[in-house]
Structure formats: C-alpha cells, structure tokens
Amino acid sequence: MTSHPPASVVLPTVEWTPACREVADQLDQGDELLVVCDDAADPVARRDADLPDRTRLVFAGEPESCSGKANAVAAGMEAARNERVVWTDDDFHHPPDWLDRFHEDYERHGPVTELPFFVGRDPLATLLEPTYALGGTAGVYAGDNAWAGAVMFERDDLDEESFLADLRRTVSDDGLLGERLDVTPLRRTRQVAVGGTIRETLERHVRFVQIVRHHDPVGMAAMVAAATVATLFCLLAPLVAFPLLTLAYAGIYLAFGVRRWTALLAYPATLCQVPLFAYALARRTFVWGGRRYRWRSKFDVDVLD
C-alpha cells in the first residue's frame, strides 16, 4: 500500500528513451505514465502494443498557436486520470527513488520542482555552462520558479481550466507554470545534456532569452544590465575579474552539488553574454524540436513549419 495519492506522470517525447522505462518502473498501484507524442508517425508510437504496465500513449496532434511541448503537456493533462500530476522530460536520468522522493517533498512543501543543470554537448554549450548554472539552476531556485522537466503539483493548486487554455497559445510550459503555481524549488539537480551542434545551442539560447523577455521583461532588462557591467569589469580589470568570477561560479556549482571543470570557463562565458543577448533579442524566429516559431508576445505564437 502506498501512503500517497496516485500520480499521473506526463512525459512528452517522440522516442522511447531510457527515462521512459525508468519512470515506468517506479509506478505504484493507481499511478500512470502518459507518454505524449504528436501523432502515430512518431517513433514512440510503434511501442503502443508493447508498453509497460500503467503506461499509456497519448497523441497530442499538431500545435496550432503554441509550441509542440506546450501542446503535448496540455494534452497529457487532459488525458490524466489522477489529481496529483508530475511533469517530466525524457533527457535525464530518473533514479529509482525519484518519484517516491517527489511525493515525500510534496507532502512537506506542497507543489515542488527539481532543478536542471545543463551540460554542454558541443563547444559553445560547454563554454556557456557557467551561465546556465547561474540562470537555469541558481536563477530558478532563487526566483521560486518551476522547471517543467521535474515538477509535481495537484490540479487544485492552480486554475487548471484557464492555465490549459493559455498553455495552448504560448511557447514556454515552465514559464507559464511558474507564473500560475506557487512552487518550492528543491536544491536537487538533474544533469541535462544540451546542444550537440553550435546551431542547436544558438537556437536554444534564443528560446531561453525570449522566455525571460516575455515572462519577465523587468528581469530581462536587469540581466542585460548586469551582463554589461560584468563585461566591462572583465575588460577593464581582467586580473581581478578572472579569479573572482571563477570562484563565484565554482561556489554556485558546489551550492547545488555539481562538480564540473567548466566553472573555470566563467570569465570567457561572461564575455560572451552581451553579444549573445544582442543576437537572441534581434532574432524574430527560432527552432525548437524541429519546428520554427515566431513568438511576438506571451500569447501570440506562430508555428511556421
């Protein structure tokens, strides 16, 4: 017997990855795993007749005015049978106690989220790891934001009907969830490999910057201002800036239990920020998951291809 309510785990993916099996193996009686893809043409659909117990396949269809990820999450939420819901992604390791620990954390804190630590798979993504640690890990924690890769809540923790309607006309699932849900970030990170090519990393950077731009414009302005000041500091006092930035970022890594040599890239990563912000803010479209999007405002999205 479990001591917690059953949960519906929503996992958008187009392929059956190790994460799917890891989550399926953790399901208790009453739990369910909803593997959400676009349609029957996706590779994961071929497993429909050979899915683990308590696992269902959900077809979300093509997105019309939102991202494919937002569309998949909305479809998964609508198909879910339980009041307690977990969102997760297919691109990181879910240890055997992942779901049980989430339930324990929810009972203590209410809605909870883990934190991503993005690990680069190409030279540019590797160079940017310190800034990912600052914005994507420490920033999510300090800002009490949600990471859609690992979040647990119950339906009555937010206005579900309004939330799902808005989810289907925006890009960022976690950006919107962070606005609508009072969540407690846990100081527990999951390493997520990102990039693969420099082009993929640039597209991801554009998307990240535009998420902040549309969901937190004041924060966006503060980030650009801070990056400008940090760049001037690096250029005017490099012998001071290099060790200070390296120590500061090493401290961020250690605070979240991460030990990676890339903290040593803090100085060159800082020098990249202003040019990358300018590039991302100047772009009018970006590619995510094989689709190109034009994101004019929070609820004005064109799916171009």
Description:
- This protein folds into two domains: 1-109 and 146-182, Spore Coat Polysaccharide Biosynthesis Protein SpsA, Chain A (Alpha-Beta Complex), CATH 3.90.550.10; 123-142 and 194-289, no CATH class.
- 46% of the residues lie in helices and 20% in strands.
- The protein has eleven helices and ten strands.
- It has helices at residues 18-24, 68-79, 98-109, 123-127, 129-142, 160-167, 173-180, 198-215, 217-236, 238-255, 266-282, and strands at residues 7-12, 32-37, 55-59, 84-88, 112-120, 150-154, 184-194, 286-288, 291-297, 300-303.
- The strands form two sheets. Strands 3-2-1-4-6-5-7 form a seven-stranded mixed β-sheet, with helices on both faces. It has a three-stranded antiparallel β-sheet with strand order 8-9-10, with helices on one face.
- A hairpin with a 2-residue loop joins strand 8 and strand 9 (291-297).
- The protein starts with 6 loop residues before the first strand and ends with a strand.
- The chain crosses the membrane at residues 222-255, 261-282.
